Amino acid sequence: MYLLRLDFFLCLLVQTLIRFMKGRCPQTILSDLDPRLRDAIRSELPSTNHVMSIWDILPKVSSWFSIQLGSQYEEFKSEFDTLYRLESTEEFELRWNQMVSIFGPGSDKHITLLYNLRTCWALSYVRVHFLARMATTAYSKSVDAFLKGIFSAQSCLRGFFEQVGVAANVQNQPHQEMQYMHMKTCLPIEEHSRQILTPFAFNALQNELIVSMQYAASEMSNGSYLVRHFRKIDDEQIHCSCKEFESSGILCRHALRVFIDKNYFQLPDKYFLSRWRRESTLMFYDDHSVLHKDDAWFQEFQSLTETLFTESSITKERSDYIRRELTKKLTTLLNEVRDMPESDGVPMDFTLTPTD
């Protein structure tokens, strides 16, 4: 009876998600290995791609096979990690059979489960779905650390959302973020991307760009490249067998290598997905400031705070002093300001700067 109730609850949960999205089913949904949740997703979202994070799978692999395989487990885990990262589904099938043959867990129900779910977790299968890197271990660790910092067993739903808002405001430091978006190459496409992408997306693209320098791309007679790329001249499309762009929305090092060899000074606009553009983010950046740029008071205040931050960041002693004194001064200043009349007849314009 309990299982029936849980199944019903999970189906209800998925239905609530659909209502929250105004009847639109998500293209892809990310979950753990829970079989009842998997069944609920299949039942209520039959057209949605179901992906399972490797972050949730690896602990299961350890608990399922470490004792069973004993001293062979580390070798098995290494092979499993390799299988997870393979680009080709054909190679995955071949090496999976080899792994099962070598380590002998073929009749194990867990190895059967993992194989049956391979289209939900193996990169060779899931890279065709847009995931914005949310299925990576790094993303899962980041989210886990973030939630642990603001969530506890005593937290209520309202308090949870309030803490999320506070954390978002703390991270909303556009000038500091822009300050640390340093150029690492002399390539024009890096500077062009820096002006468009959010810090996270720019950092991801920049890492791919740096590693692309290690690749030599030689164009073949059929239009393909040794880095397994080909360029369609007619519609300026670049496709890569690693499917990084299709999966994360960030161009891979291989495609960037081709663009560089083709002397592109700017990346085609279609490779800057709206998901990663600053104009689409909830956070404000330098070109979408909270106040009008021509406001002299705001410019003066902005310059003062930037100078204070720069000077105080030089040494720890300066930083500690500013933090200590600023807290006292601001408390006094705020008390004085709050004692002033709330209106002097002169309106202040704090509206958002219009954006395209």
From TrEMBL:
Domain SWIM-type: start-end pairs: 225-263
GO cellular component terms attached to this protein's record: nucleus
GO terms for biological process, alphabetical: regulation of DNA-templated transcription
Keywords for this protein: Metal-binding, Nucleus, Signal, Zinc, Zinc-finger
Gene Ontology molecular function terms on file: zinc ion binding
SMART domains found in the cross-reference section: ZnF_PMZ
Compartments, record wording: Nucleus
PANTHER family xref list: PROTEIN FAR1-RELATED SEQUENCE, PROTEIN FAR1-RELATED SEQUENCE 10-RELATED
Family to which the UniProt record says this protein belongs: Belongs to the FHY3/FAR1 family.
Protein role: Putative transcription activator involved in regulating light control of development.
Full protein name: Protein FAR1-RELATED SEQUENCE
Species of origin: Hibiscus syriacus (Rose of Sharon)
Phylogenetic classification of the source organism: Eukaryota, Viridiplantae, Streptophyta, Embryophyta, Tracheophyta
